[in-house]
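G., the chain you wanted modeled:
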Amino acid sequence: MKKNVLIAIVMVSIFLVAGLNSVRAASNPSGQPFDAIWTAIYALQTKCTNNMTDYVLKSDYNAKVAVLEGDIANLQVDILNLETRIAALEAMHTICSTGNSANCGINVGACAFGTKTCANGDWSACTGGTWPVAETCNNIDDDCDGMTDEELGQICGSNVGICTLGWQTCSFGNWICIGATSPTTETCNGLDDDCDGTTDEGVMSTYYRDADGDGYGNPGLPQNACAATEGYVSNNGDCNDADANINHGAVEVCDGRDNNCNGQVDEVTSCTDGNACTTGDYCTNGMCIGSPINCDDGDICTIDMCDVHHGCSHIWNC
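Predicted structure as tokens:
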């Protein structure tokens, strides 16, 4: 099926050349200045026909199809260019008679013929035409060579972080970047995922040095990381990282130190001095002290005594 279609395309191209040949004969019977153009057309026709014959006779179809398709595409472009050149040459050789006007310029792609006018036996400059410009990616034949967006390409993407460069090509007026690695959302993994030149920005956590191992870190020694390393914790409630008994979770006691890291020392409402022979214990200057108790029971037959562990005792002595 594909072979038949290609044969039909070639035949159409051959008929097109034949039609142009008729135009040649009608417009310029002398054959000048078109002979060089038609020689090129016949050469293209012969090349395409020979490739078709070669295709039909040989079994390497895929390779021959690729060659034949390329020849047909080139032939179509060349015919279009030749049509434009023929029109331009016809305009050039139009007899200049005062008051006459003729097309000038190019009528391919974005280009359009202009007009020249004959005055006193000389053609004026070509005016009003649209002329070729540099090809851009817009699905238009800007340079008027019969091809659209051809040979356009540029580097795309980034080579920062995890990103890699690609190659950008133009397809139907749109740039397409192929082969590049694009940025992703930054995650805490030691990589520059969003390709901004910074690693793990905005996604790391802060940990604090815990030298005494009490689970509370020193707020003055922070470390930003994806996870806590050895000796670091997420809690920064230690005001003395050299004493595991001092941190935000500790209970304040009467010892002259800020045990619970609230900025106050010995702010206790009660304490005990461990002496059963005192009462009304209170904290002062880091020590818990109390007032002596009175063990006198008012009995002359007893000896009143006080033991620091057991308190008052009374021994019968009558």
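The helical segments are 2-27, 35-57, 61-92.

Shout if anything looks off.
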